[in-house]
Amino acid sequence: MNYVDQVYLFVGKAVVLAVIISFLLSLIIALLVGISFKTGRYFLARPMLIGISLLESFVKAIFWLARADDKIVDDVGISLMNYINRGKFYATPVEERFVFMPQCLRSIDCPAKLTPEGIICVGCGRCGIGEAKRLAESRGYRFFVVPGSSFIKRIIQRYHPKGIVGVGCEMEIKEGLILCHSHGIPAIGVSLTTAGCVATTLNWEKLYDVLLQRSN
Question: How far is CA 211 from the centre of its chain?
């Protein structure tokens, strides 16, 4: 066997070994995700989050092969990030924590206007944002209703919050938590119960649990 053949053989074996290791690690992560989803408890939280980040496609494929909803992987991933960030988030002064709400939660008849700092809620009572704003601001939070991620980036760059609560669809929450991590800001995400461009819904009690520090 010549040198080139030996190199190809070595590379082939390395690739097969890498695939086997990735599959075994993905299987372990998938099992941990399933256990966490059912029990609400997190074992090896940081390693599991790293595993989900690196092997997300493999882990979701295992769920698909098992005829389970691979959305569970995203749910657990967000919960893990919240769990890891929780301590640092609540250690920050409440007046330096910001709440970002998506405009899609507004009523279709919302009279609020767009400004350079987002949509200013007027508390008309046509959706749940007004009540959430009153509760958040009574606790000391700064409250923003934003039409997109560009507004969030602008507000972060301008005011440098120490902690963030973000509400949105799962994709937005994942991207937002990663953005906050890149800025060294502990953040907690609350997912919408139904997503879309307008008239979305939210379990408001979950948001209030975070604002009032009632969640586990």
Answer: 16
Angle in degrees, CA 160, 164, 169, rounded to 5: 130
* pLDDT 10s digits, 107-150: 888 898 888 888 999 989 899 999 999 999 999 999 999 988 88
Burial classification of residue 111, based on how many CB atoms lie within 10 Å of its CB (0-12 exposed, 13-18 middle, 19 or more buried): exposed
- For residue 97, give the DSSP letter: E
DSSP 212: T
Residue 8, pLDDT score = 65
Distance (Å, whole) CA 194 – CA 35: 25
- The total number of residues written for the chain in this structure: 216
User: Where do runs of H (alpha helix) occur along 43-195?
Assistant: 45-65, 71-91, 129-139, 149-159, 170-182
Do 25 and 111 fall within a single domain? no
Strands 114-115 and 97-102: unpaired
113 and 56 share one domain: no
Pairwise CA distance, residues 26 & 200, whole Å: 33
Note down the domain range covering 69: 3-84
Q: What SS3 class is residue 82? A: helix
pLDDT tens figures, 31-78? 888 888 888 888 788 888 888 888 888 888 888 888 888 888 888 889
Predicted pLDDT at 195: 78
What is the pTM (predicted TM-score) of this model?
Answer: 0.83
Is residue 25 located within the same domain as residue 67?
yes
Residue that terminates a domain, selected from 84, 118, 137? 84
